[in-house]
Design a protein that fits this description.
Elements lengths: L4 H6 L3 H17 L1 H5 L5 H27 L6 E8 L2 E9 L10 E8 L6 E9 L2 E6 L2 E5 L4 E5 L5 E5 L4 H4 L7 E7 L4 E6 L4 E5 L4 E4 L18 E4 L2 E4 L7 E8 L2 E8 L11 E3 L2 E6 L4 E7 L7 E7 L5 E6 H4 L13 E4 L4 E6 L2 E6 L5 E6 L1
Length: 371
C-alpha cells in the first residue's frame, strides 16, 4: 500500500467518515420524491439510496482499518533499525461494535534512515510486534501467529500458525498440540502431537529440537566477549558467567522514581546527575557513551533524551521533547520508542506520530518525518 494524502485525510476525519453518510441520508429525506417518484421499482431504489450512506460508514469504520489501512495513525508502537532500513510500527483503530471495542489495526512503515523519506506502508494485522528481517522478508508476530511480508512490496509471503506449520515443516507433520512465546516474540516454543518439542526462531524460520541432548554431545566452552548490552535499567558487560552489571539506573532508599547512575558496587557516580523514571535505551561504544530516556515530571507526558559518558559521571548533551514539539503530551501508559544505529551514529525516536533522527555525537537533528 502506497501513501495517498487524500485517502489518508479522508479516513482520518470523523466528519468525512460519519458526516458524509449522515448528510446523504438528510439529502435523501429532502429530495426523496424527486429521486423516487419517476422510478418503476420504488422500493428497490429506496434500498439503494439508503445503502449508499451505510456503505460509506462501514467502509470508514471497519473495511478500511481492517483491510486497507488508510489514515493517520493514533500512536507509534515500535521503531526498529535493521539491515539498513528503518521500520516503524503504528496503528489505527477499527470502529468496534455494541459488545466489542475498537481493535488495533497495525501498519508497518519502511523509511530511509538517512533522509526519513517514507518508502512503503502496509497492513500487518492486529496487535503486531516487529521481530526481524530475514532476506527480503520482514517478520511480524501477531496475536496468534507469525507473518512474513516482503519488505519491498508489502506482499504477504507466509503465515505460521498451528494449522500451517505442519505443512511447512515435516518434523511437525503429526500436528501441533500447543505453543507458547519465548524470548519476547522471537521464539515459538512448540509441543507437537507426537510428544516432541521444538523451538521455531521466528526471525529466521529455523526449527530446532529442544528434547534432551545426549550426554556425549560436546558443549561449547564459554568465552567472555566484554561486550556491553542493555537489559531493562542496567548496562551489562559480558565478562564472565551470569549477568554482570556495568552500570545501573537505580533509586535511593524508597524513592525509585528519582534514579541515579550507580556502578556494580551500588556507588552513585555523580550525585548531581539524576533522571526521573530513567531507562537506558542505547549505546555508542565508539564514543564511550550511552543514552537515557527520562521525563520532565512524573506525569510522563514529556520526555528527555540524555547522552551520558560510559563512566557515568558526565552528561554530554540533552534533547527535550518540549523543544521539538511543545504542545504534544504522551497519554497515560504510552512512552516513546527509541532505536539506536550505532554504526552510523544515529538515534531514532518518536514524538507522537512523528519520527525523528538525531546525531549521536552531538544530539543535532538530522530529519523529522510525519507518518
Amino acid at each position: 500500500m502506497t501513501y495517498n494524502s487524500f485517502l489518508d485525510t479522508y479516513f482520518s476525519t470523523r466528519w468525512f467518515g460519519y458526516g458524509v453518510p449522515a448528510l446523504l441520508v438528510i439529502l435523501y429525506g429532502v429530495f426523496r420524491k424527486q429521486l423516487i417518484d419517476n422510478k418503476k421499482n420504488k422500493f428497490t431504489w429506496h434500498i439503494i439510496y439508503l445503502a449508499v450512506p451505510f456503505v460509506f460508514a462501514i467502509t470508514y469504520a471497519l473495511i478500511n482499518p481492517i483491510f486497507w489501512g488508510w489514515g493517520n495513525p493514533l500512536e507509534v508502537d515500535q521503531i526498529k533499525f535493521e539491515k539498513g532500513k528503518l521500520y516503524v510500527l503504528d496503528y489505527t483503530l477499527s470502529g468496534g461494535g455494541r459488545n466489542v471495542g475498537p481493535e488495533q489495526c497495525e501498519r508497518l512503515h519502511i523509511l530511509d534512515p538517512q533522509t526519513g523519506v517514507k518508502q512503503i506502508r502496509f497492513r500487518v494485522g492486529d496487535q503486531g510486534e516487529f521481530v526481524g528481517v530475514h532476506g527480503d522478508s520482514v517478520c511480524v508476530a501477531r496475536y496468534n501467529d507469525v507473518a512474513y511480508f516482503s519488505n519491498s512490496t508489502g506482499h504477504l509471503f507466509a503465515v505460521y500458525n498451528t494449522e500451517s506449520l505442519p505443512k511447512y515443516y515435516s518434523q511437525l507433520s503429526a500436528g501441533i498440540n500447543n505453543y507458547m512465546w519465548g524470548d519476547g516474540r522471537n521464539i515459538m516454543e512448540i509441543s507437537a502431537m507426537n510428544g516432541t518439542n521444538w523451538n521455531l526462531y521466528t526471525a529466521t524460520g529455523h526449527l530446532v529440537s529442544t528434547d534432551t541432548k545426549s550426554d556425549n554431545e560436546p558443549r561449547e566452552e564459554y568465552v567472555p566477549t566484554n561486550k556491553l548490552s542493555i537489559h531493562e535499567r542496567e548496562v551489562r558487560i559480558d565478562n564472565g558467567p551470569g549477568a554482570n552489571t556495568f552500570l545501573e539506573l537505580s533509586g535511593v532508599n524508597e524513592n525509585q522514581y528519582k534514579r541515579f547512575i550507580v556502578d556494580r558496587h551500588d556507588s552513585i557516580l555523580n550525585p548531581d546527575l539524576f533522571f526521573l523514571d530513567g531507562m537506558p535505551v542505547g549505546l555508542d561504544i565508539q564514543d564511550s557513551c550511552f543514552f537515557v530516556l527520562h521525563y520532565e515530571t512524573l506525569t510522563k507526558e514529556k520526555f528527555m533524551l540524555s547522552c551520558i559518558s560510559l563512566d557515568g559521571k558526565k552528561q554530554l548533551w540533552q534533547i527535550k521533547q518540549s523543544d521539538l514539539n511543545p504542545t504534544f503530551k504522551f497519554p497515560d501508559s504510552v512512552s516513546p520508542s527509541v532505536e539506536a544505529d550505532e554504526a552510523n551514529h544515529r538515534l531514532f525516536f518518536n514524538v507522537g506520530t512523528e519520527v525523528f533522527a538525531v546525531n549521536m555525537k552531538d544530539g543535532k537533528l538530522l530529519w523529522r518525518t510525519k507518518l
